[in-house]
Design a protein that fits this description.
2 domains; about 210 residues; about 0% strand; mainly alpha
Length: about 210
């Protein structure tokens, strides 16, 4: 996984607006509670219109959690896939999907605190991640069909589910370490750490 390309001016402005909305949303929840974090209040705090808010998020919960509706496609996975390295490819896709939530370790820690105080938010996050992981597993099965190591068609689905789950756990662990380190590591280093963790598990269980 190489270094991400530099963003153009338009993309930087979009990223800045999104980050402002996320900080506004989490700040209101921390100061005044979830009920007060309305779309109007979040938009006003971020100095944008409610209409602009909906260019970035479907609802206030997504702004608080930093989530977005992403459909994982086979093309996304193949864009990362090289030299038959499924683990690196899957980790790369997961980090692409999660990148908008990795603005800073402090913001990530705030979201963890908010999710603990408002578990109904956590259920929404879990539902989104389940959709992402299911879509990723479907795409991975397609890659397996091209790989002679997975010639048994019936075994592809359970193997894909297991590999995706392993990579997802490795990414979560790498992100927890990133938070503990105060976000001093880069996304590339998070990727390398997650891939290393997943490979270590595979090697130790042989």
């Amino acid at each position: 996984m190489g270094s991400p390309p530099a963003l153009g001016l338009r993309d930087r402005k979009r990223a800045e607006t999104r980050a402002n909305l996320e900080r506004a949303a989490t700040g209101i929840v921390l100061r005044h509670g979830l009920d007060h974090a309305t779309i109007d209040a979040i938009s006003e705090s971020a100095d944008v219109s409610p209409r602009t808010f909906f260019n970035y998020f479907d609802c206030k919960e997504d702004a608080i959690l930093g989530t977005q509706n992403v459909e994982v496609t086979e093309e996304m996975v193949r864009a990362h896939h090289r030299e038959g390295d499924l683990i690196s490819s899957i980790v790369g896709v997961l980090l692409d999907v999660m990148a908008p939530t990795l603005g800073s370790a402090a913001l990530h820690a705030v979201r963890v605190q908010i999710a603990r105080e408002y578990p109904e938010l956590f259920s929404r996050k879990m539902a989104q991640m389940t959709r992402i992981m299911d879509g990723l597993a479907v795409a991975v099965r397609s890659l397996m069909a091209d790989d002679p190591r997975f010639s048994d068609e019936e075994s592809r689905a359970p193997l894909a589910d297991s590999i995706v789950a392993l990579c997802g756990s490795a990414v979560r662990t790498a992100i927890r370490e990133w938070v503990a380190a105060g976000s001093t590591t880069t996304v590339l280093e998070i990727h390398e750490r997650a891939v290393g963790l997943a490979r270590d598990v595979v090697a130790l269980l042989r």
